[in-house]
Amino acid sequence: MIRFLFFIFVISTILFSCKKPGVIEEYNEQDWMAGGTQTVFEQGSGAYRQTFPTLSGELLATHGTGDAMFEATFVSAPAPKNSGLGPIYNAVSCATCHINDGRGMAPIDGGSSASLFLKLSSSGQDIHGAPNELPGFGVQLQTKAIFGTQAEGDLIVTYEYETGYFEDGTSYELRRPTFTINNPYTSMGSYLFSPRFSRPVFGLGLLEAIPEWAIIANEDNLDVNQDGISGKANYVWDIKNQKTSLGRFGWKAGVPSILQQVAAAYSQDIGMTNFLFPKETSFTQSQYDNLSDENELSDSLLYATAMYIRTLAVPARRNVQDPEVIKGKQLFNSASCIKCHTPKHTTGVNVAFADLSNQTIFPYTDMLLHDMGPNLTDNRPEYLAFESEWRTPPLWGIGLSVAVNNHSFFLHDGRARNLSEAILWHGGEAILARENYRKMSASDRAALLKFLNSL
Q1: N or C terminus: which one in the chain shows less Cβ crowding within 10 Å?
Q2: Residue 128: left if φ>0, alpha if ψ -120 to 50, beta else—which one?
């Protein structure tokens, strides 16, 4: 592997020495290696499913066990294998939502999707600052149920379409979703909701390894530098350590660790109890099965699944020497996109887990919350995150979305059908970046999108 990476470096150096005259040099050998030494060069449907190249021994074996768990299809109890599904749930496996470890499929107009779920809450917060559960429904709408049990309701999505114009007169169309809960099993009363679209799970171990101080260093809550962009950290409840910790994962950075993210998904999405979430999601509801079978997922298998996700590699960038890609990178930077989508980070020193230690990575995120304006508000706060605030999503690997998942739906509810639409939905702190993009010439817009697709 080392010789292979050296070969790639040598070839890229030779090719770049022949770059076209007049092109401003904004390339270095690190641009290939989005995940540091944990970068892989797969570009097909398996690009998000690759293991850390440096992983070996027991860690590699644990990764394999977690991989099998991620793909496993669960069934209702009692069963000799993969028992414990439900009684109410959204999916039968992790892979149902994270197809090829990537994005799910957004619903068609008037339809639903296993990859899109609805967070629910009542007004106010619990003692840890989390959204209050919605009585009779918990924290998430469960749209499926095992045989003989009633699901909580059906989630239906419809779209309205609106036309806008670039500065050069070219028109574009955006679609705005509306979410309806049909056939609730009981009265819902007043509630808050937030749609969430499943995202890729690769590279999360590297994001978890970025030191907290490095993330906090980019906060600017009061916009002291007066650039219109603040950025703030979310602080959330860490169940395992029983303390408030920096939020890193989830659309609103509402989860502190990969382990808690995985445990919550097993509980809320599949209905599998575990040591972090020992009660059935239906515990106080009529669907509760009254079985004394907790915990349904063993600690070792939960940790193995978390290790699998923690050690998924990052796909290398492509076409980094293409003059149009270099031009697009310059436009991305000058349009102020770079102020939230921070390109470069360095993971902390970790003597116990050298594979994650001291890696120079290029995820294009600051891991902070930003106000994205009224068009992207979900009217549901989460810990310190206001209704219109979202964590900056990483952009690494985004250009392989079609190759991996055969679609290009983006944003928290999948409303954007391509990267251009995703940019055009930006508002709030990102309104300047959006307007800079909207005012570009067609050729400049194409170059910027080509750069994004090289990531």
Answers
A1: N
A2: alpha
Per DSSP, the chain holds a count of helices (H) and strands (E) of 12, 15
Q: What is the 3-state secondary structure (H, E, C) of 21-78?
A: CCCCCCCCHHHHCCCHHHEECCCCCCCCCCECCCCCHHHHHHHHHHHHHHHCCCECCC
Q: Give pLDDT, residue 56.
A: 95
Which of 254, 365, 255 minimizes the C-alpha distance to 306?
Answer: 255
Q: Are 271 and 318 in contact (CB under 8 A)?
A: no
Exposed, middle or buried, 20 (CB in 10 Å: 0-12/13-18/19+)?
Answer: exposed
Is 379 in contact with 131 (CB distance < 8 Å)?
A: no
Q: Is the pLDDT of residue 419 over 90?
A: yes
Residues 336 and 436 sit within 8 Å (Cβ to Cβ)? yes
Q: How far is 322 from 338, CA to CA, in rounded Å? A: 20
pTM of the model: 0.92
Work out whether strand 171-182 and strand 154-165 pair parallel, antiparallel, or are unpaired.
antiparallel
Cβ 113 vs Cβ 419: under 8 Å: no
Dump pLDDT digits (tens) for 101-157: 999 888 888 878 878 999 999 999 999 999 999 999 999 999 999 999 999 999 999
Residue 45 tokens read as 């449907």
Nearest-10 Cα torsion for 365, 368, 370, 375 = 70
CA quadruple 401, 354, 238, 152: dihedral sign: positive
CA angle 57, 58, 60 (to 5 degrees): 70
Residue 339 C-alpha from the chain's centroid: 19
Identify the H or E element spanning 328.
helix 323-334
Angstrom distance (rounded) from CA 323 to CA 133 = 52
Nearest alpha-carbon partner for 439 in 197, 170, 204:
170
What is d(CA 229, CA 126) in angstroms, rounded to the nearest whole number?
A: 30
Which tokens belong to 86?
């439900």
For residue 415, pLDDT over 60 is answered with yes
Q: For residues 42 and 34, what is the distance between their CA atoms, to the nearest angstrom? A: 13
Asked if 454 contacts 318 with a C-beta cutoff of 8 angstroms, the reply is yes
Q: Which amino acid is at 235?
A: Y
CB-based burial label for 242 (10 Å; 0-12, 13-18, 19+) = exposed
* 223 DSSP assignment: -
Share the mean pLDDT of the chain.
92
Q: Strand ranges (DSSP E) for 241-363?
A: 243-246, 314-315, 345-346, 360-361
